Amino acid sequence: MEYQHRLTILDHYIRQLPPFPATVDKVMEICSETNTSPMDLTKVISLDPVLTGKIMQLVNSAYFGLPREIISPVRAVIMLGMNTVKNLVLGATVLNTFGARQNFRALNMDLFWEHSLGVGVIAKLIAKKRNINNKLLEGYFIAGLLHDIGKIPLNSKFSNEYMNIIDVPEKEPQPLFISEKKFLGIDHTHVGNLIAKKWKLGKEISDTITYHHAPETYQGLQHDILFTVILSDYYANNAGIGFSGNRYMEDLCPEATHYLGDSEELSFKDIDAFNSEVEQEIEKAQIFLKVVG
Amino acid sequence: MKLRLWGVRGSIACPGPKTVEFGGNTPCLELRFGEKNRLIIIDAGTGIHPLGNRLVWEDIQDGPISTEIFITHTHWDHIIGFPFFRPIYIPGTKLKVYGPITFEDDSLEKVIGDLLRYRYFPVLHGELTANIKYFQLGECKMDLGDGITLKTKYLNHPLLCLGYRFEFNGKILCTAYDTEPFRNIFSTGENAVNIDHITRAEGEEAAREENEKLLNFYRDADILIHDCQYTKEEYFSSKIGWGHSFFEHAIDSALAANVKKVVLFHHDPLRTDRELIELEKYCIEHMNSRSDLEIVVAKEGMEIEL
Fold first, then answer.
1. Residue B43 forms beta bridges with which residues?
2. Are the C-beta atoms of residues B153 and B165 closer than 8 Å to each other?
3. Rounded Cα–Cα distance for residues A255 and B108 (Å)
4. With contact defined as beta carbons under 8 Å apart, do A13 and A156 qualify?
5. Are B249 and B264 in contact (CB under 8 A)?
6. Chain B contact for A42 (CB, 8 A cutoff)
7. What are the two backbone dihedrals, phi and then psi, of residue B4, each rounded to the nearest 5 degrees?
8. Could you tell me where the DSSP H helices lie in B25-167?
9. What does DSSP assign to residue B130?
10. Three-class SS of residue A70?
């Protein structure tokens, strides 16, 4: 299939990227309650990369005219009120459904979700450990949660090819993004960039999505978030937190290790210690969404 | 800039012997600008009915009516007078209606225009002879021409609701209704035990910042027309989250934002003339810590020149 043709298919799909089925049920449940708790509402948003991205897109859209910044679900609820955010969530959810779970043929949906959430949680824990301003922590979580968002369209639209691509390392050891590029002509960071542009995500998030496999080429200013997510991704892969199709991890880029690992506040031992906290977070989320683990 | 209050009551119109002095009509403000006497209307509560009559009796002699109505939000008390605004039945009238609406819900034209359906009213919106255009508004800055600029800001109400800040000839008029103080809804209530400290802190920070943004929005206003539906006691005993302020909050905001005159507005329909007189006296004597802040309780028919 031609590259241009693939791009058209992806572009069309990205326009209507649906949230995860596990979240959809919970969204419907929460939004149909008359007395929804704000915590439940923000939690259901934060647990779904697609919903989180879409809510950020909507809150930052010209419709509201708000100054553009990372507006976490918590902030959105306080600024715009429960009713408005509920409406945004329903709007983002009802427009399209994910379809059946079999759409996630190559990647296991639950494991992919676990990986995304895990990277988000670790990124936030690292940032916390490094005494990053509380106000910015949510940005680290969101960047981690969304870093692999580009895999969703590839997995859904080219699922047969994607199954083969995920299996490539059995014959030839190479990271997933290289195989994607080789066999599809486009990798998930590129697709993620298309999504970030469509959703008009801020630099912190969109640069992380776009450069998390190419930090050495990165010229922008968001090193802190980018390197944190790279480190979190590396850790999540090694610790087997979920699975996002990457059977062969590239080495951790030295820039990221230097940038983060040399700091006094953080050592790799610390990250190991996050393990039980991450597991707990994921388990809590699974119970909340009633995902069968 | 001149201001005339045609309706100062919140929730529902409440004519009767106990509201004769302060009036029973729901919100409608008439603003007049400069030598051209340009007209801008804020809200179409029942107060727009007598305003419309005045326009038809007086203004129309100078030519067809051309004006803008800025709706703060589409709750009934702020739009219900629209079908009774006589200029909409007069050919040649040009009307632009602006206001916020719920995302991906009906358009502003439908939300307001649906008041004119046979089930509610004998005339259909489509039968109106005036030229009416509708525009959805979010937070923005607008140049309205004739040296008038407008800034809008979301307030804190259960429905998207905008405050309006008009600047003209160095004078500033600001509206802040319907609204209540932003608060951290992630710190209280039965679910508080499930809230982690980061979320709670983030909620705290967000609420503080939003309140700060509101003060900046009112900053240095010559007139701030502020929601004061409740007393402090009423607010804290059972009205938190209803989207309305209390007297003390309105005055504290005016003090903090260096406002020159605060007009306490959007009275509860149960508030009697006698209570309002007493409240006004109490506010002036006990709540005003700055000698140059003027405090008045809004009264129907009140005119203020800036």
1. none
2. yes
3. 53
4. yes
5. no
6. yes
7. -130, 130
8. 48-57, 76-79, 108-113
9. S
10. coil
DSSP B125: G
Q: What's the pTM value of the predicted model, to 2 decimals?
A: 0.88
Q: What is the mean pLDDT of chain B?
A: 95
Give the pLDDT of residue B72: 98
pLDDT digits over A121-151, tens only?
Answer: 999 988 988 889 887 888 999 999 999 999 9
Helix (H, G, I), strand (E, B) or coil at A264: coil
Q: What does the pLDDT look like over B103-145, one tens digit per residue?
A: 878 999 999 999 999 999 999 999 999 999 999 999 999 999 9
- Cβ–Cβ gap A78/B203 under 8 Å: yes
pLDDT at A293: 39
Q: Which helix (H) or strand (E) holds A229?
A: helix A223-239
Nearest to A74 among B189, B199, B210 (CB): B199
pLDDT on residue A264: 55
Among residues B3, B2, B50, which one has the least CA distance to residue B26?
A: B50
Q: Which of B73, B140, B152, B185 to mutate to test the interface with A (most CBs of A within 10 A)?
A: B185
- Interfacial B residues in 165-184 facing A (CB < 8 Å): 182, 184
Beta bridge partners of B176: B226
Give pLDDT, residue A108: 86
Beta strand pairing status for B303-305 and B294-297? unpaired
Contact between chains at A138 and B206 (C-beta distance less than 8 A):
no
The answer to whether A79 touches A71, Cβ cutoff 8 Å, is yes
What residue type is A216 in one-letter code? E
State what percent of residues in chain B have pLDDT above 70: 98
For residues A282 and A120, is the Cβ–Cβ distance under 8 A?
no
Interval B33-59 mean pLDDT: 96
For an interface test with B, which of A56, A63, A129 has the most B Cβ atoms less than 10 Å from its Cβ? A63
Q: What average pLDDT does the structure give for chain A?
A: 86
Check: CB of residue B129 under 8 Å from CB of residue B143. no
* Residues found in chain B: 306
Helices in A62-211 by DSSP H: which ranges? 73-80, 82-94, 109-129, 134-146, 151-157, 159-167, 176-184, 188-198, 203-211
User: A240: phi > 0 → left, psi -120 to 50 → alpha, else beta; which?
Assistant: left
Largest CA distance in chain A: 55
A44, containing H or E segment: helix A38-46
Distance separating alpha carbons of residues A252 and A259, to the nearest angstrom? 12
Whole-angstrom distance, CA of residue B76 vs CA of residue B10:
10
The verdict on a CB contact (< 8 Å) between B185 and A91 is no
Burial of B152: CB neighbours in 10 Å, binned 0-12, 13-18, 19+: buried
Question: What is the model's pLDDT at position A96?
Answer: 53
Six-digit token string for A22: 């596990």
Sheet holding B303-305, edge to edge: B131-136, B94-99, B66-70, B38-42, B28-33, B2-7, B303-305
Report the share of chain B in percent with pLDDT over 90: 90
